[in-house]
Amino acid sequence: MELSPEAVNSLLEQGIALAYKIIPTLIYALLFYFIAKFIINKFIKGFGIILEKRDSNPSLNTFLIGLVKALLFVSLFIGLATILGVPMASFLAILGAAGLAIGLALQGSLSNFAGGVLILLFKPFKVGDVITGKGHTGSVSKIDILYTHMFTFDNKEVVIPNGSLANSDVVNISSQPTRRVDINVGVSYDTDIKKARAVIFEILKNDDRVHAEPAPVVWLNNFGDSSLDLVVRAWANREHVWPVYWDTMEKIKEAFDQNEIEIPFPQRVLHHVKEE
After folding, report:
1. Tens-digit pLDDT profile for residues 64-111
2. Which of 104, 152, 191, 209 pairs as cysteine with 138 (C-beta 3.0–4.6 A)?
3. CA distances from 242 to 63, 181, 252 (A)
């Protein structure tokens, strides 16, 4: 089927009119994209430099940079869609449906994401802290947005989801510069309590790692089945807690042996009744 010259001319005119309408819009959209992308990259770079100067948590810095970058690029593509004439109601409906589907598929990951945000923002612990959480004790090596990595004292790496960690009890062992050393020791019932206390006080007094303030205490804590139970409490720098504990235990045993103070074994007193 051949087109008449009038039909050809009409199609050409419509094509030229459409080109005059579309080409400027495309050029404007391309200019908007490249200029906006350049500005976003410069902004993200400057934002990263500012965060580094603040000397904050590196994991938090990475998260904030990624979040700001994602929001800016989403805004960029919404702007492009607006320039190209995409109906925003339909566009937002598609985004909402996609977000709902992704959210349902990634419920666990989103919970970990929210937990990571809470940990990074409120900082109950940081990299390098020794914590107890979810039944594990160790040093925090890395805090990702989804998982917290820690090394136990026997050099095992433990990876804990942030969702469960943020919603459970966490003990930060290294948040304070000093900690209390608690030691329990039993002596026999015929022991002179004042003498035993004086022996222990002398051990603590001669240890430079034990703080004078707060002053160490030694008290009778319990009448046990086989012993009088003494509680020893002293304060030391957190890095000295376990060395002070182990050394003091050993010195108490040696000093009790020298002063003939008995640390009794578990024992029972039996009364035998003889029937006639």
Report:
1. 777 788 788 878 887 777 777 766 666 666 667 666 665 555 555 678
2. 152
3. 36, 8, 15
Cα(139)–Cα(137) distance, integer angstroms: 7
Count of positions (residues) in the chain: 276
Q: Which amino acid is at 241?
A: V
**Side-chain half-sphere exposure of 170, counting CA atoms within 13 A:** 23
**Domains along the sequence of the chain with CATH:** 7-105 (1.10.287.1260), 124-172 (2.30.30.60), 178-258 (3.30.70.100)
Q: For 85, left (φ over 0), alpha (ψ -120 to 50), or beta?
A: left
Average pLDDT over residues 245-271: 89
Residue 191 pLDDT greater than 80, yes or no: yes
What does DSSP say about strands 170-172 and 157-161: parallel, antiparallel, or unpaired?
unpaired
Model confidence at 219: pLDDT above 90:
yes
Query: In this structure, what token pair is assigned to residue 132?
Result: 């107890």
Sheet with 130-133: list strands edge to edge: 157-161, 147-152, 136-143, 130-133, 170-172
Residue with tokens 């906006």: 36
pLDDT above 90 (res 236): yes
Nearest to 248 by CA among 214, 202, 188: 202
* Model confidence pTM above 0.70: no
